[in-house]
Design brief:
61% of the residues lie in helices and 0% in strands. It is an all-alpha fold and 132 residues long. It has a domain of 89 residues: Cyclin A, domain 1, CATH 1.10.472. The chain starts with 12 loop residues before the first helix and ends in an 11-residue tail after the last helix.
Amino acid sequence: MVGQVISREVYSGSSLLAELNFQSVSGLYKNFQSVSGLYKNFTRMSPSEFEFFINLIGEKISKNDTAFRKAISVQERLALTLRFLASGDSYVSLQHLFRFSKQAISCIVPEVCEALVEKLHTGKTNIIICGL
């Protein structure tokens, strides 16, 4: 008897983030508790906190599409940086998770960190920092 080959879906960090983002942030709150838990495990923050940071630094880190390729979204840039900061993964590890080149990652992470420091350092933003 020949076994049936089962195809597995391949998830990257971007597709997982998009799925979690779509289910939790865009208004589909059917299973919010479990989705929120998965989202928090991946990004190390809740969907509402993630949205807060998107609104805070989105304009600073956004890029325009070119004739050759689509730009990496603000959400992916922030998620990539948060994953790097939270896990300490290498750029090569993140390259396989997000499917971005390590050269792109080496530009994105410092850029997003700089934007976060700049916006949070101004003192105009009231943020309560608490342990997870």
